[in-house]
Structure formats: structure tokens, C-alpha cells
Amino acid sequence: MHLEGTVLVGPDFEPVEGRVVVADGEIVRIEQESVESDEVILPAFVNAHTHIGDSIAKEAGEGLSLDELVAPPDGLKHRLLRAADHGEKVAAMARTLRYMESTGTGTFLEFREGGVDGVSALRDALAGEGVGFGERAIEGVVFGRDDSDVLSVADGYGASGARDADFDAVRAATREAGKLFGIHAGERDADDINAAMDLDPDFLVHMVHAEGIHLERLDDRGTPVVVCPRSNLVTNVGVPPIRELAERTTVALGTDNVMTDSPSMFREMEFAAKLSDLPAREILRMATVNGAEIAGLNRGAIEPGADADLLVLDGDSDNLAGARDLVRAVVRRAGHADVSRVVTGGEPVVQRDD
Ligand SMILES: [Zn+2]
Questions:
Q1: Using one digit for the tens of pLDDT, what is the confidence trace for 100-113?
Q2: Which CATH number does the domain 45-295 belong to among 3.40.50.300, 3.40.50.2020, 3.20.20.140, 1.10.1200.10?
Q3: pTM, rounded to two decimals
Q4: Distance 255 CA to ligand 1 centre (A)
Q5: How far is the CA of 229 from the centre of ligand 1 (A)?
Q6: Which UniProt keywords are present, listed alphabetically (predicted)?
Q7: In CATH, which superfamily holds the domain spanning 2-44+299-351?
Q8: pLDDT tens for residues 24-82?
Q9: What is the tens place of the pLDDT at every residue in 24-39?
Q10: Ligand 1 centroid – CA 312 distance (Å)
């Protein structure tokens, strides 16, 4: 198959008029040529941090603090998750997966609660098990927690935070299994950052309260960071120093709990771009190739040999027509209504015909 339009090529998203040629789920080549198409072709998004289990609890808990809302074991989210049955959770997650696909996300890195059962529920949602619509094409990189057996079914371990438990043994077991270890750090305050970094994680999540010493350690180690600025705003913990982090290491964007924020990468990009005033190219990298790099996947940039996970926008929509800078328009302005196609693994999964 091939897609025609203005292609945002490579990790710098250079706009090239022409076509992307795809075969066997891979990008084969980019052909520069004059074409009759207003479409804009970019990599599908990689949402680098989600908790989609709480899709059963959207907008619950107005006015609660971070701990009252999401802290294990008895934050509101965990009580609602315990009270919901398996089928209800699977169905709610499946609808979130479908929404993520329709807003251009091809891959997500999920921190799943509830041990082995929690991971199985997400796998059921991905497989469309009993939810009334089919298997989803979006790829989940699933980080389990709560028991060490979870490594047998998950792609990695996603720790709640260094102050919640001693993670040394599970850190070692994760490395032994050749899987990824991620951990929340510096969300409420700076107190758990050094302990999290001592575990030598593959990535840190949040780092809202990163201070000089932590930034220096990031400089030394280059540990990637996933930031979730809209979530931090909702839980009233401050905003991450996106610019300072990005000067030192790989930074990716995540939408965090579905309970608190819609898992649309368009919304996260616009917010991160306007909050940090970083160049749009850099924000788009945070929403695509940087998250893929953390997960060890070859996608998120349009270049030969990369996975063909692509997002096609209507560049002549009422929202995008006349844009003078396409990358800025994609990052700061585009939304769900501009999506004309989403391609995952070389196959169209969302197609709008109007
Ligand atoms: Zn999280």
C-alpha cells in the first residue's frame, strides 16, 4: 500500500510532498513527487504512560488530593477498581483502546494494576474478548505490578513509587527476565526521586519536582523521563520542568490515568507545547519516536525500515487549512476531527471517508 500527501519525514519531521510506500508492515521508502493530496502523513503516536484500567471511573473524585485519588492501596481509584467486575473493566478498557486508536495512537506504555489478573484483563480488552467489537490493532506495552509473577505475563514492571515498597528484588528479577523497569518519581514531592534513581530504572515517570541534584544525575545517566503535564495539573502537584529535562535526556509524553484525563495525544501535545514553549518538532518527538525508543520499538519516525504505524490528517480541514507551519499546526492545533486515517502495522485501522 502507499499513502500520498505531505509526509513529515524522519525524526525532524521534514515536510516532503510525495508518498510513503509500505509493505509487510514496514515503511519501504519515501518517494518525493508532486501529488494531488491535501493529506498530512506523520508517525502514529506513542503514548508513553497510561493507566487505562480506571476507564471505569472517568471524572470521579473532584477536589480530592493526589493520594486520596490514586495512591495504593485505598485511594478512590483502587476502591473503584476493586468494586468493578472483570467484564466491566475489560469493556471499559476496550472502549478506551478504540478511542486511542481513533485519535492516532498506535502504541501505548501501560502501567497496569492488579498483578497477573490486571494484565490479563488488558490482554482480554486488546483481544476484544466479550466486548462486542473485535480485536484492537493498537499495541500495548504492558507493565505489571503487585506480584513478581506478573513478569511472566507482562512486558515489564511498573512500580508505583520508591516510597511504597522495597523494589530491589523485583528490579533484579526484571533485569534477569530481560524486561523493562519503570517507576513513578517526583510526582508529589522530591523525596522519592533519589531512591527511584538508585534502582537504575529504564525510565522515570513524572519528575515534576526534579531539583538540581536530580537533573545532574540525569545528565550522568541519561535515564529517560516520561512527563504527563495535564495529569499533574489535575492532581495539583505542579508542572514538570519539561525544558530542563529535555536538555538532559530523552523525554516522552504520556496521558496518565484515564480517570483524570482523556487519553488523546493531541491534547497532551498542545498542552506540553504551550506550557514549555519548546519547538513543535521537539514536542512531536516526545509524542512519537521518544516513547518508542523507551519501549525498544522501531517506530515513531517515517523512515525506511521502520514499522508502518502512521497517522493521516486532512490538511484541508476547516481547522488546519492554510497552516503556514505544518508541524506547529499538528502539535498545537490538530485534533480528533482532523484524523482521516490511522495505519497500524501497515494495515488501516481507522478510515474516514467523508
Ligand atoms: Zn502513572
A1: 999 999 999 999 99
A2: 3.20.20.140
A3: 0.97
A4: 9
A5: 12
A6: Hydrolase
A7: Urease, subunit C, domain 1 (2.30.40.10)
A8: 999 999 999 999 999 999 999 999 999 999 999 999 999 899 899 988 889 999 999 99
A9: 999 999 999 999 999 9
A10: 29
